[in-house]
Design goal:
By secondary structure, the chain is of the alpha/beta class. It folds into two domains: 247 residues, Alanine racemase (TIM Barrel, Alpha-Beta Barrel); 121 residues, Beta Barrel (Lyase, Ornithine Decarboxylase, Chain A, domain 1), CATH 2.40.37.10. It contains 13 helices and 17 strands. Helix 6 links the parallel strand 4 and strand 5. Helix 8 packs across helix 9. It is globular.
């Protein structure tokens, strides 16, 4: 069962009163659930020299980032605004990985000036840093293995041989040698090959690729890699019949592999998960505004797919939906739809739910990662507010809803006309 079902009942929260006070729609995050997941993650990997660098792209809200920092997590950022968010949440520069791709030299220089750890995604990036005399003493290199183990699900992440990310292994030795010749003294290796997996194999495969390449660097260039970043992508159960990832099992396998490394070489192991940490601990609360009978029965709600864009971007995406305050004695098969001018604006298709009436609340579960963060203002539909449920039952506004003033803000500017005629 998706993990976010039941957390409001567990804490005795009067969700209809919350909805009345704040107004729908809204994202609601469970601080206690996030705390419990952070503690479980740290406990599973205790005894290993490792650290989780939360993927800020999953839930870029300072209130959440501060909560994660309190558990010793660092932050994985892919843009300068994400770096600014992490710093605003109290992180130091040493707590931040900057893992970007197709990045301008200005953005790279700004990240280096901020003294964050930069993962280099392409040989051309290193060349630009050399030309700009901006090569830092410590860098990471992202690897694209061009291959995967059998049975990997590539539906969300794609296959490495068509990916825009990373350096080919057959170029890694030359790239690292060039880096050392230009002042690099500490090297990390990074990889990201899969998303939303709930078995140990992808992480173990990633570690195998990294240790293989790190061993080549030791043997050929006498370079000791100090960081092995196996990426993120650890998944959560979205459907009622799915099982969660067994962190203790994964940690045991990782310990076995790391114990096989030469005793004089003990690199730090890093993760950069987002979905695993916060995904199960968020719900999108929306209200039924229309009941419609066409060729199908439709439940129209006051939020559209723009507020949960991953339902449109990725095929086959499923989010569990409940109607906890509707009468449970009768069910029906419905589509749950928003108000966008596109027929793909569906939060659920042919889903069995309790019979609902206008005004009833629906909860869309497991949206604590890549939910609000991916939201769009297409069709002039504004992004909803974010709330944080504390263990004492209090609910805090941590991001207000967008307004029309926000929507039109970028249309207020100093006039500027340039003649492009030769």
């Amino acid at each position: 069962m998706p993990m976010s079902t039941g957390f409001t009942e567990r804490l005795g929260v009067d969700l209809p009163a919350v909805a009345e006070h704040f107004g729908t729609p809204f994202y609601l995050y469970d601080a206690q659930g996030i705390d419990e997941t952070c503690r479980a993650f740290n406990a599973a990997f205790s005894g290993l020299d490792c650290r989780e660098y939360f993927a800020v792209k999953a839930l870029p809200n300072p209130a959440i980032l501060r909560l994660l920092a309190s558990h010793g997590f660092g932050f994985d950022c892919s843009s300068l605004p994400e770096v600014a968010l992490a710093l605003a949440a109290g992180a130091s520069s040493r707590d931040i990985f900057f893992t970007s791709n197709n990045t301008s030299i200005d953005e790279l220089r700004a990240a280096i000036d901020a003294d964050v750890f930069v993962n280099i995604d392409d040989e051309s990036v290193l060349n630009k840093l050399i030309e700009a005399d901006a090569v830092p003493a410590a860098v990471g290199f992202r690897i694209n293995p061009g291959r995967l183990a059998d049975g990997f699900d590539t539906s969300l992440f794609g296959h490495p041989d068509s990916a825009k990310f990373g350096i080919r292994p057959d170029r890694l030795l030359d790239v690292c040698a060039t880096a050392v010749n230009h002042g690099v003294r500490s090297i990390g290796l990074h990889i990201m090959i899969a998303a939303n997996f709930r078995t140990s194999e992808p992480t173990l495969y990633a570690l195998d690729v990294l240790t293989q390449e790190a061993t080549r660097l030791r043997e050929k260039l006498d370079i000791d890699v100090t960081i092995l970043n196996v990426g993120g992508g650890m998944g959560i159960p979205y459907r009622p019949d799915e099982q969660p990832l067994d962190l203790d099992e994964l940690a045991g396998h990782l310990r076995q592999r790391l114990d096989q490394l030469p005793p004089e070489w003990r690199p730090k192991l890093c993760f950069e998960n987002g979905r695993l940490i916060t995904g199960p601990h968020g719900v999108l609360v929306t209200r039924v505004v229309n009941r419609m009978s066409k060729w199908r029965e439709l439940v129209g709600v006051d939020v559209g797919a723009t507020a949960l864009l991953r339902s449109l971007v990725y095929s086959g995406v499923y989010h569990h939906i409940t109607a906890p305050y509707a009468a449970a004695d009768r069910t029906e098969t419905v589509d749950v739809v928003g108000s966008l001018c596109t027929n793909i604006d569906r939060l659920a298709e042919q889903r069995e739910l309790p019979v609902t009436r206008e005004g009833d609340l629906l909860l869309i579960h497991d949206v604590g990662a890549h939910g609000h963060a991916m939201a769009s203002t297409y069709n002039g539909r504004l992004r909803p507010k974010e709330l944080l449920l504390h263990p004492d039952g209090s609910v805090e506004l941590i991001r207000r809803a967008e307004t029309e003033d926000d929507y039109f803000a970028t249309l207020g500017f100093t006039p500027d006309t340039f003649s492009a005629v030769r």
